[in-house]
Design goal:
The protein is of the alpha/beta class. The protein has helices at residues 22-33, 56-71, 89-104, 120-130, 171-174, 181-189, 205-213, 221-230, 282-294, 299-314, and strands spanning 14-18, 42-47, 77-82, 106-111, 114-116, 137-141, 156-159, 167-170, 234-238, 243-245. 37% of the residues lie in helices and 15% in strands. The longest helix has 16 residues, at 56-71.
Length: 316
């Protein structure tokens, strides 16, 4: 069987979800084209439709974004699925990922504000190949925040926590996705280990579940994360981030301006993906918990961040 940079199975399809951010999409496409496996990878692009068909500016941005996709030559094949109506990000991603995994059994997923490293597709495909038959492994993540102590992380490791800034999964795992948010919350409340879902009160993801129920937001990722957690699933991560978030500038649907530059990371090195014990890594868990409590700050800035976080939680 032909191998691709250490990948022995057929390469997974890459799926990109776009809407009306042509400048962000252009940067993402440029990064994809620079990936070492791009020319051997099939790209599927789901382009959401307009919210207000009479809005000329929105229509123009959607048209510009789709034109970039049509002109893109960086992958082996490019398939564009333009929507005539606006589905919303949550429905678009759930529907698109479901379509692809049902056809191909696995998928790699990006949104229009996620830049990838040249080694991203290699890592993803190696991980998908290596853990294909490990039922407890449900998700492959690629984003890792940077702060002091990162050097102590192993080359790859498992967490119960899910991050969707560049990820992959298999059909066997995705079919466990539960979209009934009240049911998810009820099941989570019954768990003895539910405190670990919120990284021991370090991140407000539990509120996201509740906000989906009361209609304040409509998101998909928290449902996927909760589904993984309830199935005792694990997510694989690399020591160094292979993706970078460029959408926290107020331009996205659910994005706030990233004032503190929390999520700026460097992407420079490849990752050596080897089979490891399928269990949560305690060092990595503590690293992530500290990041969400203190950010990438030190000293007084870290204390202020911690106090501000808990002041915000009291408002919920």
């Amino acid at each position: 069987m032909e191998t691709h940079l250490g990948v022995t199975a057929a390469l997974a399809p890459l799926v990109l979800f776009v809407y009306q951010r042509p400048s962000h999409t252009k940067k993402v496409l440029d990064a994809i084209a620079n990936d070492l496996l791009a020319k051997k990878t099939v790209l599927h692009v789901y382009s959401d439709g307009p919210k207000q068909p009479e809005d000329g500016i929105e229509l123009e941005k959607i048209a510009q974004t789709r034109a970039l996709i049509k002109d893109f030559k960086g992958c082996k094949e490019v398939h564009l699925y333009p929507k005539t109506k606006n589905e919303g990000l949550a429905q678009s991603i759930v529907g698109g990922v479901t379509d692809i995994v049902e056809k191909y059994g696995k998928v790699i997923v990006l949104e229009d504000d996620i830049l990838i490293s040249p080694f991203f597709l290699t890592y993803m495909n190696q991980a998908l190949d290596l853990y294909e038959k490990e039922d407890r492994v449900m998700h492959v993540g690629s984003f890792v925040p940077q702060r002091s102590g990162q050097e102590k992380l192993p080359e790859t490791y498992f967490l119960r926590f899910m991050n969707c800034w560049g990820w992959a999964t298999w059909q066997r795992a995705w079919q466990k996705l539960e979209l009934d948010t009240p049911l998810l919350l009820d099941k989570l409340q019954d768990r003895e280990d539910k405190t670990f879902f919120d990284l021991e009160n370090s991140i407000g993801v539990l509120k996201q579940l509740k906000d989906n129920i009361n209609g304040k937001i409509n998101t998909w990722a928290i449902k996927w994360y909760t589904s993984i957690f309830l199935h005792n699933g694990l997510c694989l991560y690399p020591k160094r981030s292979l993706t970078s978030q460029i959408g926290l500038d107020g331009s996205g649907i659910h994005a706030d301006v990233d004032i503190d530059n929390w999520y700026q990371v460097s992407m420079s090195a490849s990752i050596n993906v080897q089979k490891i014990s399928v269990a949560e890594n305690t060092v990595a868990y503590q690293y992530l918990k500290q990041f969400y409590r203190y950010g990438n700050f030190r000293g007084w800035k870290a204390v202020k961040r911690y106090l501000r976080f808990h002041q915000q939680r009291l408002k919920f």
